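Bumping with the actual sequence this time:
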Amino acid sequence: MLRNTIVAKHNGYAQEYDQKTRIYECHITDILFGLMYEFIQPGQVMLDAGIGTGLSSNLFVKADVQAHGMDFSRAMLEICRKKQITATLAQYDFQCGVWPYPAEIFDLAVCCGVTHFMPDLLDILAETHRVLKSGGFFAFTTKAPSIILEKDTFFIEKDEGEFHIYEHAPEYVKSLVSGQGYVGQKKQICHIGENLFIAWVVKKQN
């Protein structure tokens, strides 16, 4: 699927996104915040990669964390901007190269409900590592495989109507985490409707 088409589809459902999240009783943003809570200090600076309408930043901001967000969807960012919860917002496709932030600027980073739209997670883990301060924490989600994967299979791809969805093998995620200079802190399996997701918290090594 062409990248412009994917962006257009995300723009298309932006207005309904928050409402659908409530209808589906999707609370994975709350789970990520809860897993990160013990590592949060007032005044910290956080990057929300794939911020969308801002749901994943909301609780962090209430905990006196300064949030900065980026997303490729102009429509999603407009909704987020109206909520006035972030210090800055950038329209940027973070799968397209170096992110528009200097190195070692953020204390925290989150990426919620995003990685199941991409096959390879190496770049996002590498760029997050670059922009995190030493000892910083990164919380993110992946979609758990619905079948047992063969050895050395990193993910399976599914065509779910409008989007291609990727379910990543936990061992593949673990290998990327350690290979990119993180130490795993927490992992929690979460039910979102009939789907299984995994919430991860990792720490950039000093």
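The tokens above came from a reply further down the thread. The beta strands are 45-49, 66-71, 88-91, 106-111, 132-143, 155-160, 163-168, 182-192, 195-204.
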